Amino acid sequence: MVTQLNIVSDEKTRHIITPGNFESISYPPNHNSTHSSGHNQDQVKQGFALKVSSILQTTLEVESLIKLFSQQIKPAISHDGITYHNDPLGLGYHYGKKCKHQCQYRLLVNGEPLGEINLHRRWEFSPEDKKVFEYTLCGLVYPLRNAIMYRQALHAANKDALSGVYNRSTFEDTLNREVKLAHRYKRSLSVIILDIDNFKNFNDNFGHSLGDQVIKSTANNITSCVRSTDIVFRYGGEEFVALLSNTSVEGAVFLAERIRKKIESSIINFEDQNINVTVSLGVSELNENEQNASFFSRADKALYEAKKTGKNRSCIAE
Fold first, then answer.
1. Rounded to the nearest 5°, which phi and psi values hold at 23?
2. Among 116, 134, 238, 285, which one carries the catalytic annotation?
3. Global pTM?
4. Is-contact 192 259, C-beta < 8 A?
5. Of 157, 189, 211, at which residue does a domain stop?
6. Helices 292-308 and 168-184 meet at what angle, rounded to 10?
7. pLDDT, tens digit, for every residue of 109-161?
8. Is 238 a catalytic residue?
9. Strands (E), 197-312
């Protein structure tokens, strides 16, 4: 059973409800027990939660935050492993061992979902263990929310606002990293450079509104063709780049043709007119000991050859 922990700010909302197939518990941040016999124990738990929270505020990396949280709460609630996942953000981390017995919570702050966290150990969690965990989770949620917001801000800064793929400022660092990894582990790396044919005509004849629509459609078609491990960038106005790890030139050409045909067969309806778009593509594979500039330049020259020889085609770098 997954327990849903809601951290809220209104003292009147302290309650326990059971909607659906999971228990939902709501606490205000400074929850105090109404039973005087447990008042001192609650104060100790709150103090521990505040101490954990202050330590967690030393990092804005979600992965480091979960690991640090596990280390900090271990003296109070022994466990063999911890798991955190946030499916909408594609986050998933695990430390230690997964065991038979689990203590799992779905986290929310003022109704905002922050993912699920799960403790694992070889013996059952007692009601007191769960109570301690709930208090310490109250100390986790705000640092976790800050870390998630920071991650989202970084992610947004690396993305092109119009197309939704990575922007050019991100490309140089990514290219440098992928080239180093390819050389270090002796694995293939290929690049595709794609340019929309006659893009200026769309803006001149129909206005920038259509131009924007062509950019978005092209980006969507590219991302629908590539693998999850491939990285797509908007390099210039109508130019895109795809970095393909563990991919030979043959695989890259196959993908380039798949993208080209996908875009060619797509129709954009604009002001009751059907607009066709084509692209030209240049492909290169990283050579042994080759540096970033040469690797990219060869693909760029292949793109120029595709443009010069008729457009709507793929060319391989020499």
1. -80, 145
2. 238
3. 0.61
4. yes
5. 157
6. 120
7. 888 889 999 999 999 999 999 888 888 888 898 899 999 998 888 777 888 98
8. yes
9. 231-234, 239-245, 267-270, 273-276, 279-285
